[in-house]
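Comment on both lines for my students:
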Amino acid sequence: QPLSENSRVITPPPVFEDPTTYSFRDEFSQTAGNLSGKTADNGGTWAGSGDADQFVVETTGHTLQRTTTSDATNTGRWADLGSTNYTNVSLQVDMKINSVPTTGLLLMGLTARSQGFMALLSINAGIQTLRIYRPSSFVLVQAVSIPVAKTVAANTYYTLRAEVLANGRYYVWFWQTSTNVPGDPLMKGYHSVYQTGGSQATGTPGL
């Protein structure tokens, strides 16, 4: 039956299942030092861009760290993995901060489509949001407030998961790592630049 001009097509969010194989993955078990030039467990070699202060691999907890607190506006530090361009991607990162800033701006998260899609936790003067950015001086696509139940605390791991699809749709989940994975995404949306033929239709993953 044809849809009326007032009808809408409802698209349910994807259902996540834990993968058994990975196109890109890194547990950061390399030697200590700057991330750029190191080889990931899957997906190729890390390359860096943006601010000169790099991500650093540490070998006690096998984590990736960055302690710089004074990046230039709209700069930041980015790490892209490998040279393979992906279209339909699912990405996930576990992250934590050692203190919650009450002044200034903190952005951290993951990227897809060669930084064309940025899913970032934002803490701006103490206000916590999830944000989707595009490149070119951080063009904001969407922002939502972090629910009180998910408010970020210091020294606690949180998981950020995103899926970006060839039809231009994206979904983002956020939760405390030690709790159950939420069924519904915290953010979802569409942008024409992410669909096939768009300016950010494919690219490499990163942080």
Notes: The chain has no helices and 13 strands.
